[in-house]
Design goal:
By secondary structure, the protein is an alpha+beta fold. It folds into two domains: 86 residues, Alpha-Beta Plaits (2-Layer Sandwich); 37 residues, no CATH class. Helices cover 30% and strands 22% of the residues. It has three helices and seven strands. The two termini are 31 Å apart.
């Protein structure tokens, strides 16, 4: 998963197959200003099964040929602020669950104008790792 990114918000074709690598290449060129990303994509596919009742398009997981290219794309993700698109790293289920618990704490600390940083499954508030005990007032 080290070389993977998840892309959210890209429209999904309802009928037939789609070429996710081409879709990501076009997206990166038009939205992020990165041409020829497809040369560095090993695999790209939608996550989850098809469901006609689904209101949001399924995310696309992309495995890049190199960590360097993955980081180049991820660093440009700030250009998506204010749009319906987003990009995030893919983490194992255990880390995803821990992050899910830490995000509300991070948002509360930000509302209190504290500096926060979420690194994998660790939350730092004002430069100190949040453990749930000593930072309870965050």
């Amino acid at each position: 998963m080290r070389d993977n990114l998840l892309f959210f918000g890209l429209a999904e074709r309802k009928n037939g197959r789609e070429n996710c690598a081409t879709l990501i290449d076009d997206f990166c060129e038009n939205q992020l200003g990165l041409p020829s990303v497809s040369e560095n994509i090993e695999r790209a596919h939608r996550l989850g099964g098809r469901n006609e009742e689904r209101t949001k398009p399924r995310p696309i997981v992309v495995k890049f040929a190199s960590y360097r290219m993955r980081e180049k794309v991820r660093e440009k993700a700030n250009r998506l602020a204010g749009t319906s698109f987003s990009i995030q790293e893919q983490f194992p289920k255990k880390i995803q669950e821990k992050r899910k618990m830490l995000i509300p704490i991070m948002n509360e600390a930000r509302r209190n104008r504290k500096s926060t940083k979420l690194v994998k499954d660790k939350l730092y508030i004002d430069g100190v790792e949040y453990t749930g005990h000593s930072n309870a007032d965050a």
